[in-house]
Design brief:
- The chain has about 210 residues and is an alpha+beta fold.
- It has 2 domains: about 70 residues, no CATH class; about 130 residues, Fumarylacetoacetase-like, C-terminal domain (Fumarylacetoacetate hydrolase, domain 2).
- The chain is about 15% helix and about 30% strand.
- The chain contains 4 helices and 12 strands, in the order βββααβββαβββαβββ.
- The strands form 3 sheets. It has a 5-stranded antiparallel sheet with strand order 4-3-2-1-5, with no helix packed on it.
- A hairpin with a 2-residue loop joins strand 2 and strand 3.
- The longest helix is centred in the first third of the chain and has 11 residues.
- It is globular, with a radius of gyration of 19 Å.
- The structure holds zinc ion (ZN).
- Zinc ion binds next to strand 2.
Length: about 210
């Protein structure tokens, strides 16, 4: 099942939980089976069973008639640094780490699909870095090129802090970031970043003048 967070009816219904089915979205919130994505990801197996049981009767809305929001408002956003060997190789100052390391981003930095990013004149080197992120647990995707697997990253973090529902763990960016191109490539208004993951879909982020 592909979970989405959506708003519809001209914004009168906001942050509902839905299941994407082709060009339709089944709204679980209207069917009374989930009030928020946090409830779904923070719930146990019975919460998922409730979703599956209620899916058939949930009202369908055309994907074109709804606005997809960011999937979840995260608690912590923990980003794995230098987790792709290719990215380590393209950065002359980077060493492939022997243990995972992380930096954090603010929860408010999250945007939804098609949410533009503003580039102000104060930002001189806006780079693009696409990453695969996990919200709670996920099976190991064994993505080729990863230095540390997702279970290893989560295990490492859990030694230092509690991981809670809606926390996000990102898995590092692959080779090809703009700063290490020759010449360097930085984002400007009118550009767009697209990330596509097998089985998940395509996310497009436009850069606009801020
Ligand atoms: Zn709804």
């Amino acid at each position: 099942m592909k979970f989405v967070t959506l708003s519809h009816c001209s914004g009168n219904h906001t942050h509902h939980v839905g299941i994407l089915e082709g060009d339709q979205v089944a709204c679980l919130t209207e069917a009374g089976h989930a009030t928020s994505m946090l409830e779904v990801v923070g719930g146990d197996a019975s919460a998922l069973a409730k979703v599956r049981a209620g899916l058939a009767m949930a009202p369908r809305r055309a994907l074109a008639d709804v606005k997809l929001d960011a999937p979840i408002r995260p608690g912590k956003v923990l980003c794995s640094g230098i987790n792709y060997k290719g990215h380590a190789l393209e950065n002359p100052n980077a060493k492939l780490p022997t243990e995972p390391f992380f930096f954090a981003k603010l929860p408010s930095s999250i945007g939804g699909p098609d949410t533009p990013v503003e580039k102000t004149d104060r930002t001189q080197q806006m780079d693009y870095e696409v990453e695969f992120a996990a919200v709670s647990t996920l099976q190991d995707g064994s993505t080729s090129g990863w230095r540390f697997s997702l279970p290893r990253l989560i295990s490492f973090l859990s030694r230092f802090m509690p991981l809670e529902p809606a926390d996000i763990v990102t898995t590092g960016t692959p080779a090809g970031v703009g700063a290490f191109q020759n010449p360097q490539i930085f984002m400007k208004a009118g550009d767009a970043v697209e990330i596509e993951a097998d089985g998940i879909g395509l996310l497009r982020t436009a850069i606009v003048a801020g």
